[in-house]
Sequence to fold (331 residues):
Amino acid sequence: MSDHDTAEANTGEVEEANSAAKKKQSPLGRLIFLLITGACFVYLYFRLNGAAAREGLPLAEYMTQVFANVAWGPWLALMMAYSLFYFLIDTLVVTRALNWLLADIKYKDILPIRASAYIISIFNEQIGKGAMAYYLNKRDQIPGWEVGSVMLFIMFCEIFYLLIWATVGYIFGGGGLPEVFQIMPVISIGATVFLILWLLYFNGTLLPNNQLRERRILHGFRRAKLWHYGAFFLLRSPALLAAVVVYTTALNLFGVEASFLTLLPYLPVIFFAAAVPTPMRAAAITFWVILFPENEGQMAAFGFVQHNFFILFNAIIGLIFWRRAQRDLFA
Fold:
């Protein structure tokens, strides 16, 4: 088979996977996300309206005052620096995961597609990762299912990396957390057991005759060793630790007192909520208001501006690299 035929076959694999994913999107799933979004906006309206009423102000005037009291200059500089730092770390993680499990691709060659994928991630982060898989398949003729498996590995590791930092935050600051965080030890122990079973399954120790692990979409998990998971955590962690510093500083610029130790267990939970594809990151905004109930207006404004600026500024980074990505893809 020629290189051209191989590329066509691999592209067909990616398109087949994308088509299958679209078919799996059920009306029930869309309805659930609509209900979540509706519940978030209703909750936010009543909380903010109640806060405005306590101040003796209409809701619009109350929120106008909240936004007027923000130190916007320092906040903007802080968020631009953080977004650029996150982009560099994020690209490093994707590059290393591909190097470990699939192919030797240089960091500078991943930069354009990782940046361009942020444009699609405005709507859904996971679709952005799918776009990266398609790009790498077209440009480097890497089998589509195997690229997809690396993206799955990254998503899987991101869940556990957030959970680990949430657990660390609970250990050091659990006394001052809301009651709901008391379930953290149970979640952490359960996740540890699950990860052990997961590793044993994919190295063939558990259920050795089971063929599910042989599917091409699970190629990355078959190749991954324990040290890959640990290395992922170490590479990704600077982004979260920087986020703790940035978000704590930003909260103070919004007039809300917060400490690094307070935000450490909060941020992983909020980042989970931010991954839910709700309009304007409504789920994440709602979590900020729930976790800081004494500052409803400031937290709603903070959550709205913080998460949406991050997404949009990343998309601007993507636009800078867009022509380079197109040139690489269609050369």
Notes: The chain has 13 helices and no strands. Residues 3-330 form one domain.
